[in-house]
Amino acid sequence: MEAVLDAVKRNTRGKNEARRLRVSGQIPAVVYGAQKAGEAPTPEAVAVDPKPFTRILHSSSGLNTLITLKIADGNEARVLVRNVQLDPVTQHLLHADFYRVNMDRKIKVTVPITLRGEARGVKQDGGILDFVHREIEVEVLPAEIPNSIDVDVTDLGIGGAIHVRDVAANAAWTPVTDSDLMLVHVITIKVAEEATAAEGAVAAPAGGAAEPEVAKKGKTDKDGDAKGGDAKGGDAKGGDKKKDDKKKDDKKK
User: Fold this and answer.
1) Domain spanning 2-100 has what CATH number?
2) Which of 37, 50, 65, 123 shows the smallest number of beta carbons within 10 Å?
3) How many H-runs (helices) and E-runs (strands) does the chain carry?
4) Using CA atoms, how far apart are residues 55 and 61, in angstroms rounded to an integer?
């Protein structure tokens, strides 16, 4: 997407100048890069209206919008937004940085991924669509920067995946991001449940190992009580025998 933005040159800089511009309804900005091929890059101070600039930032192409910056002295520059500064409280624009682009030279930009359709593995098989990476970096001519990269997931079944290399074929851009990077895939709920069960199985032996030890201790205590009871029982029997012997001696007398 392309847009047009008016700008005026600034001859002075500093906090006071920036404050004066904001009060008058403009924001300070700087344009970086060489004005002509072969020239040394020279930053140019300008001022722009924040309202149309905000609309550009909120458009579908956002920061990747190719802007024709029309400067009041008659010059024009094809630029992209490098950086914007916002008020931390009001979120109003405070400052902007642009950089000139050569329309015949490729540049690197980050482009968002947009998913299209409903995956077969989700609709028919009850799987889950896992959107792994939502943007990639590409190299492209300024006039061919895409607003987004559309990825059709309609034919994606359980276990299926789409990588950067799958969407880069016949594209006007070249991927800078690793071609093997996975963008989206379909997984099953069962896989997630098995993963959870496996974690529980790993933790189970540790808990199970303690139980025999506790049981062993309890058995030892029980045996000890039983032995103690047998000993008492033996003492009781010994006492009865002594009483019988004493009765017999009394009868003899």
Assistant:
1) 2.40.240.10
2) 37
3) 5, 13
4) 11
Q: Give 170 or 218, the one with higher predicted confidence.
A: 170
Handedness of CA 185, 187, 191, 195 (dihedral sign): positive
Residues 6+ apart with CB under 8 A from 230: none
- Domain 107-187 sits in which CATH superfamily? Ribosomal protein L25, C-terminal domain (2.170.120.20)
* The pLDDT of residue 204: 54
- For residue 39, the one-letter residue type is E
**Strand pairing report for 128-131 and 107-116:** unpaired
Query: CA 194, 197, 198, 203: dihedral to nearest 10 degrees?
Result: 170
Instruction: Give the pairing type, strands 2-9 and 66-71.
Output: parallel
Phi-psi region at 44: left, alpha or beta (left = phi > 0; alpha = psi -120 to 50): beta
Q: HSE of 1 in the Cβ direction (CA atoms, 13 Å)?
A: 15
pLDDT digits (tens, 9 = 90+) for 95-136: 999 999 999 999 999 999 999 999 999 999 999 999 999 999
Cα separation of 5 and 159, whole Å? Answer: 47
Q: Check the CA dihedral 84-114-110-99 and report its sign.
A: negative
Distance CA 36, CA 182 (A): 40
List of residues 6+ apart from 231 with CB closer than 8 A: none
**Domain coordinates of the chain in residue numbers?**
2-100, 107-187
How far is residue 93 from each of residues 31, 97, 104, 129, 167, measured CA to CA in Å?
Answer: 16, 12, 31, 37, 35
- What is the spatial distance between Cα 118 and Cα 155, in angstroms, rounded to a whole number? 8
Query: What three-state secondary structure class fits 238?
Result: helix
List the structure tokens of 46.
Answer: 């300008």
pLDDT score, position 220: 46
